[in-house]
Specification:
Helix content is 73%, strand content 0%. It has helices spanning 4-14, 22-41, 47-58, 66-82, 86-103, 106-122, 126-143, 146-162, 166-180, 187-204, 208-219, 228-248, 251-256, 258-268, 271-288, 291-304, 309-325, 329-357, 374-407, 416-430, 435-445, 464-474, 477-487, 494-502, 523-539, 549-559, 566-582, 586-590, 598-616. The longest helix is centred in the middle third of the chain and has 34 residues, at 374-407. It is globular.
Length: 617
Amino acid sequence: MGTVRSHDLSALLRAGRPANDPAVKTALIALSKEIRSRLISGSRESRDFFISSAESIGRLKGSTHRSVRADCLLDCCKFLYVCGDSAIALESARQACELASKLGDAPRERTALNTLGILYADTANFVQAVECYSRALELARKLDLPEPESGTWINLAVALSYMSRYQEALECLDRAATRARDAGSWAPILIRKVAHNESICWFHLGELNLARERAEFSIFGASEPADSTELFSRLVREHNYVRILLDLGEFSLARNRVSIVTKFAFGADTARAHEMQSVVRGIVEAYCGDFSKGVAEVAALLDKLGASQTTHHDALVALARAHERAGNHGKALEYLHRLLILHQSRRQQSALLHIANAGATNRLKHSSQLDLAPLQVRHSRLQAAVAEGRRIGTQLDMLERLAITADLRDDSSGAHGFRVGRLSSLLAVELGWSEVDSNAIELAARLHDIGKTGIPDRVVLSSEILQRDERRLMNTHAEIGAELLAKSNVPQIQLAEEIARCHHERWDGSGYPNQLAGKRIPISARIVALADVFDAMTHGRPYEQELSIEDALDEIGRLSGRHFDPSITGPFQALIRRLVQGHADLDSYLGEASRKSPFFVARGRIQRLLDDAQAGS
């Protein structure tokens, strides 16, 4: 429940009192003090208070008290993030960004962008998180603020880690450490944060001893946490350290950390913190105590969960790895299956959340008044049509960001979808398609692998048998992508849904997911299949060497009539050979559209900042 102060502000707004009313100002100032006090103390009973406070402050309009409103909204976002309610906090962070921008307050805008980036990353919108961080970094650089700049480099590294771009994340962390050394009293805290995230990167790169060294540096000698945010941050570090110790077989040390995890969990006192404590306690017991008791505790937690998907993920990974280590491969696969389902659900819900919110502020409702003059009616309808077009365009941009996230898993440039889209469009023209239809397939083909956002970013299990089964499950991305696009409620992407579902079908019926054969496969998917495989062949994958263009065309010719439609394989080969003659840099030509994408603009900005820092060092 909200307190008297949050109810005071709500009551004033319901009564129609404007933002510049002295009573509103008094209520807002009082509420801001209580928000700050509760943020420091951090109690899970405060969740409803922070939600109602953010809603009330978000209803204030105009230019009055913008700085106080922005700060209150950002404090609410911090608490809700720690509670695992990042999706609820997103709109408040967007409002804080807008308020700071209108104030012309660059330091506050940088803080708001950084917070919004954290929430985007926590709701699986990693591409837009990177865009926010790139703008925040630029502001911090202009203002010469070492501490905020270092913090944003760290957050950018976290987002890149979520995208499995560990080497890029380490480069950002190196820059964060450099800036941290100029951050005065903040330097020790920031350098420990850098070390924690370096530990995560090294863990996933398989360098367990390096991971341990950085984890221990981030924990040992650190000052006691001062508020709920710091308590949760320390809890996350302890969880990471225990995971590393278990993988190294340091069971006694891991067991000793359980009491420390418990102390920080009770200090943070949020549902998310207590769930994390249960996972750590259970998995340590499973590894170095009573296996049945430990896995039973984590499994019991899973049955009670539902609200915290982050903890759900941690619990499933822990159970899968514990059962694999015990030789229970059937159980390990059972939890892997559940993990895939959770990822699919989480990424779909997150995608739909961002798509639904995209362009929401630009919507215009059709007028319900029937007595408008005909010209006014026409004007209103045109306004609505323009607004709807903008809304759909914004939603398509959001889908494109999600597709880039999927592409970055296999292609470090992230431009795979753009190249496949352009190549599909050119082949469609070659086959006699109209300009409208060829443009449509270009946009739709960019989204062909969007279903990979529903697949875990990292291989969870280590045995070869389980990895084969996991790879088979990865093939579900075609159905996941089609389902996601079908649920997005954007009429212009029906073609994209068809392509996402069918681009891995094969001419001879040996493909997936439905073993369609011949002309039962939609022509759009047959076109995209050629473009997709050619681009994959000529750029390589983590599991395959890249081929030269001629070798790739020879392989495509060999697969004609089996993998590919023989009637379009020849035109495709002729098209590629003609493009090679006309363009010295085929990648640059095919990926031209990617350079206009906000994410690639942001990535270029980040690279320039890194290059400038390197040149100045």
